[in-house]
């Protein structure tokens, strides 16, 4: 089958999703089966409006520069796609003779691809549709990890290491610091802050994930213990943490803040924890809430992440022109010493409707930390050592006055 290829980006931008786009375009340009290479502006939202761009006509040097550029060059969206929309999409694809459909995103994007395959078959339109993984949340099933996650993990490991030094210095005044990470239903991002530690006892001292229900009394006991031991406390918390009733610690109640599928905008867990530390323990507390900037730092992007983001793009093109459809490209960690990965294809029926949360063996029994196996899982993905900072030796001078 020969025809045109179309690619789109969906969901939250990342530090490396443009690397994937470059991989798609460069692989498509080398394929004799691909005619035009089209880009959807703002994902399927743009496709429905025939807001397309000709990617073959871009200057050649763009693709090299794009590999170092964060965010989503084609634009992104979080559109809820109806069955009627799918029918319209098939007709747009037919009009442009698109036979290869690649969509870069998370589980929601994979669901669109899966449903589009069925819609095309019902309308007797031959189409190879492939989902390309991308999500900082690292919550896609059937892949060792997701492009975008290693880079946000590297950003947080470095940032929290530096925030820990800040707290050591000023902890006699600002005693408690709470850092909020992204992550709605899975705690992979918050867990990555553990790699900030160079030595035992360093920040973050406590880590709270959505996989464990938040217990207020245990939290207060945790903070009191660390404060007694170290004199200051650094806490990492996922924005998606819930209490025992399944209620988010903080979520917007405004209708305008809900996404297209009805989920509330999260954020504010840090304020809740700061208020508890201040009101219940009498400790001065402040928070850092980096928000979306944590996911798009090209300067701190993992080189491993860049390499794999490119490979999933090229493999998606290869799969599509080989006639594979209703599949997602998966990253496979190879066994043996050192870190090596390969790619595979998995059926979207194994991906859609599933959320890969942090497994129990990666979470400490206390529920407020992670385990060494998690460190071993994540460290190779960061792509090299983190900055190591100097510390003064403890050499006190004897007192001369009583």
What would your notes on this structure say?
By secondary structure, the protein is α/β, with parallel strands linked by helices. The protein folds into two domains: 3-147 and 300-350, Rossmann fold (3-Layer(aba) Sandwich); 152-298 and 356-382, Phosphofructokinase domain (Rossmann fold). It has eleven helices and eleven strands. The strands form two sheets. Strands 3-2-1-4-5-10-11 form a seven-stranded mixed beta sheet, sandwiched between helices. A four-stranded parallel beta sheet has the order 7-8-6-9, with helices on both faces. The longest helix has 22 residues, at 149-170. It is elongated. It starts with a strand and ends in a 24-residue tail after the last helix. 48% of the residues are buried.
Question: Topology of this protein?
Answer:
Layout (H helix, E strand, L loop, with lengths): L2 E7 L7 H13 L4 E7 L2 H6 L3 E3 L6 H6 L16 H13 L2 E8 L1 H16 L5 E6 L15 H22 L5 E6 L6 H4 L14 E3 L7 H15 L2 E6 L30 H13 L3 E4 L14 H19 L5 E7 L7 E7 L24 H7 L24
Parallel strand pairs: 1-2, 1-4, 4-5, 5-10, 6-8, 6-9, 7-8
Antiparallel strand pairs: 2-3, 10-11
Helix pairs in contact: 1-10, 4-5, 8-9
């Amino acid at each position: 089958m020969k025809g045109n290829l179309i690619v789109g980006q969906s969901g939250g931008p990342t530090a490396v999703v443009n690397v994937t786009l470059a991989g798609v375009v460069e692989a498509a340009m080398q394929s004799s089966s691909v005619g035009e290479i089209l880009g959807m502006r703002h994902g399927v939202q743009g496709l429905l409006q025939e807001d397309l761009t000709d990617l073959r006509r871009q200057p050649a040097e763009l693709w090299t520069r794009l590999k170092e550029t964060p965010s989503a060059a084609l634009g992104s969206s979080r559109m809820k796609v109806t069955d009627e929309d799918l029918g319209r999409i098939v007709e747009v694809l037919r009009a442009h003779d698109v036979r290869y459909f690649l969509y870069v995103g998370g589980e929601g994007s994979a669901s669109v691809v899966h449903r589009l395959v069925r819609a095309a078959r019902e309308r007797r339109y031959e189409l190879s549709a492939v989902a390309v993984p991308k999500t900082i949340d690292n919550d896609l099933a059937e892949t060792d990890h997701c492009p975008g996650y290693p880079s946000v993990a590297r950003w947080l490991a470095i940032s929290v290491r530096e925030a820990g030094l800040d707290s050591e210095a000023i902890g006699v005044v600002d005693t408690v610091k709470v850092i909020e990470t992204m992550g709605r239903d899975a705690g992979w991002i918050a867990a990555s802050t553990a790699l900030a530690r160079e030595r035992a006892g360093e920040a973050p001292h406590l880590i709270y994930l959505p996989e464990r229900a938040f217990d207020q009394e245990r939290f207060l006991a945790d903070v009191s213990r660390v404060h007694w031991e170290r004199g200051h406390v650094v806490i990492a918390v996922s924005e998606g943490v819930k209490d025992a009733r399944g209620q988010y610690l903080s979520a917007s109640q405004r209708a305008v803040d809900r996404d297209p599928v009805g989920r509330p905008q999260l954020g504010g867990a840090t304020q809740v924890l700061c208020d508890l530390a201040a009101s219940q323990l009498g400790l001065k507390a402040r928070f850092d809430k980096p928000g979306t900037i944590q996911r798009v730092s090209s300067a701190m992007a993992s080189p491993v992440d860049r390499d794999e983001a490119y490979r999933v793009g090229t493999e998606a093109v290869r799969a599509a022109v080989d006639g594979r459809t209703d599949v997602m490209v998966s990253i496979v960690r190879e066994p043996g010493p050192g870190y090596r990965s390969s790619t595979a294809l998995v059926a979207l029926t194994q991906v859609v409707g599933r959320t890969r949360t942090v497994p129990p063996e990666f979470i400490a029994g206390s529920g407020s930390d992670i385990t060494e196996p998690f460190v071993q899982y994540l460290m190779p993905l960061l792509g090299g050592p983190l900055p190591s900072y100097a510390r003064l030796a403890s050499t006190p001078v004897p007192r001369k006055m009583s």
